[in-house]
Amino acid sequence: MSSQCRNIVCVSSSAYNAARMQDRIPEHRLRLIYNGISLAKPDAQSAASKGLREELHLNQRGGLFISVGRLSAEKDLPTMIRAMALLPAKGARAHLAIAGDGPERIPLQEFVLSQGQGEHITILGSRMDVPALLASADVFIQSSLTEGTSIAILEAMAAGLPVAATAVGGNVEVVVPEETGLLVPPSDPSALAGAMSALLDNPGRCRALGEAGARRVAQHFSLEAMAGAYALLYREALGLG
Questions:
Q1: Which domains does the chain have, with CATH numbers?
Q2: End-to-end alpha-carbon separation of the chain, Å?
Q3: Is residue 192 within 8 Å of residue 170, measured between CB atoms?
């Protein structure tokens, strides 16, 4: 299929390098265009919502982590679940809500129970109110083994959440360590738990990281920037510019 395309768009530098080195696609046919998201603000009622805490019957003293994405093997959610099980030893009191659906949902629900985390982790399933979920949370978590440019991370950063994620794929291009969040090695529950605890223990740091993340998305990962890059590519392909 790639041999029939004039240009191939890669959404991260890691994808670009893989296409060039592993797939042997000539550089002149490759374009790097990051995913972008709409920066339209949710309505005030949604933005101010704390409905998820009420839904989960949480008090205001514990932290609330949120993860959003497809429940599939490459997201490595067992690492996230194991990290949650390590938090009490670090003195952290928190709940994790996972929004999304996919082939791993039933195995993950069983794994949550096997790890004794039934009271601390809720798999929400597919949700249509992601902006409200993000507005309710304190920190966004991702434990993926591979990523392009994660829309979920971009939306969390745009909502002002600090991010604790694995240093894979496009994550290292989106999340600036110690500036917009924390990056840890993949498949390392202890490292992820450490990042989660470090963020939860310092609300002021969380706010600063979240604000910096929102600025970074607005500057580099907007829907307008992505659309402009694709428009330029189409003009070049048509010989118009």
A1: 2-39+222-237 (no CATH), 44-220 (3.40.50.2000)
A2: 26
A3: no
Identify the three-state secondary structure at position 205. Answer: helix
Instruction: Decide if 161 contacts 137 (C-beta within 8 A).
Output: yes
Give, for 163, the enclosing helix (H) or strand (E): strand 163-166
pTM of the model as a whole: 0.89
Let me know: does 30 contact 5? Beta carbons within 8 Å: no
Helix (H) or strand (E) holding 122: strand 121-125
Question: How far, in Å, are 2, 40, 206 from residue 135 at the CA level?
Answer: 40, 14, 14
Q: Please write the tens of the pLDDT for every residue from 75-104.
A: 999 999 999 999 987 666 799 999 999 999
Per DSSP, helices labelled H in 56-160 are: 77-86, 105-114, 130-136, 151-158
pLDDT of residue 5: 80
Question: What does the alpha-carbon distance between residue 167 and residue 182 come to, in Å, rounded to a whole number?
Answer: 9
Whether the CB-CB separation of 199 and 178 falls below 8 Å is answered with no
Closest CA to 129 of 171, 88, 96, 159: 159
The predicted structure's pLDDT at residue 122: 96
- The Cα–Cα gap between 129 and 165 comes to 22
pLDDT score recorded for residue 62: 77
Element (H, E) at 166: strand 163-166
Quote the CA–CA distance of 234 and 236 in Å, as a whole number.
Answer: 5
